[in-house]
Every structure is written in C-alpha cells, then in structure tokens.
Amino acid sequence: MYSFMGGGLFCAGVGNILLIVSTATDYWMQYRQSSNYMHQGLWRYCMPGKCFPHNDSIAHLDATRALMILSLLACFIGIIIGIMAFIHYSSFDRFDKTFAAGILFFISCFLVFLAMAVYTGVTINYYGKRYGNWRFSWSYIIGWVSVVLTFFSGIFYMCAYRMHECPRSANSH
Asked: How would you describe this protein's topology in the membrane (predicted)?
C-alpha cells in the first residue's frame, strides 16, 4: 500500500511542478512571421527581444488558464491529503484520505486534459488555417506530460485504497 502511495505522491509532485511550469511559461506555441520566430503562452506573446501581455480577453485562453489553475489546485490539495494519508493523520475517522487523494488526482487530470483539448482544438483550427509555419512548443508538451502523471497518481492512490479496503471487507464477513 505504501509503495503505491509513494509512487502516487511522486507522480503527483512531479505533475504539479510540470503544471506550474507549463502554465507560467510562454512557449505553448511558436510561429514564424516575417522571418522572425515568435512564441506565445497563456499569459503573453513574445516577439524577438520583447514580450507583451494578452490584452484582449480571448475565450480559449481564458478557459485554458482557468482550467489549468483549477487543475493545479486540485493536484495540490490531493498532495496534501495524500501526505496526510501516508502519515496516518486522523482528524476525520470516516474520511478515507487515500480515496479522496485519488479522486482529486483524477479531477486534476480531467481538468488539465480539458484545458489541453480546448487549447489544441482552437489553436489547430485557427492557426492551422491561417499560418503555415507554426508548431506547439515545450510548455504545451509539458502540459500533456502532466496529464499522464496526474492520471497515474490517481491510479496509484486508487490501488492503495483497494489494497487498504480489501482486508477490511474480508474481515467484516
């Protein structure tokens, strides 16, 4: 049980760090315009030597930002509850912390998956038709890696919950 929880905490910790890096950096997309490479993130777009904030309220960027921040919060709270389960902190007797941490990691995974899907769909639909020389960049790729890591942290915690619950249910009969 503890090995699953340790693996879940490791994946969640790395996933949360990658979520922070992905959300905060400006390399979600790179494109070439008039022989210069430019890049943009969720918060700013950058031209050679200078970056500017996104002043317009662009719906897909607002949705992606909100979903990424909610995912960060869910993952962070899941880590806190996962640590409490790991050290047997018992402030609530009827509250199974391994199950709650696993659910929070799955919620985080779903939210970041939704954010990445919104960004991908709109970006491909908009930039794919207007610009020929663009590509997704490393911040975007890190976002997809965090989807996988938060998913596996949820799997690990659900496995730990099942291992913890099976002896209990066998003893009750």
From this structure: Multi-pass membrane protein
Calpha distance 69→106 (Å, rounded): 15
pLDDT mean values, one per 10 residues, the chain (173 residues): 84 96 94 83 91 87 96 96 79 74 96 96 82 87 97 93 64 52
Cβ neighbours of 121 (radius 10 Å) = 11
Counts for the chain of helices (H) and strands (E), in that order: 4, 5
Distance separating alpha carbons of residues 32 and 58, to the nearest angstrom: 21
Q: What is the pTM of this model?
A: 0.87
8 A C-beta contact, residue 161 and residue 5: no
Interatomic CA distance for residues 72 and 20, integer angstroms = 7
Judge whether 88 and 111 are in contact, CB under 8 Å: no
CA distance 141 to 128: 18
User: Which residue shows structure tokens 């018992």?
Assistant: 90
Q: List Cα–Cα distances, 93 to 88, 165, 166, in angstroms.
A: 11, 14, 18
Q: How far apart are CA 25 and CA 31, in angstroms?
A: 16
- pLDDT reported for residue 33: 77
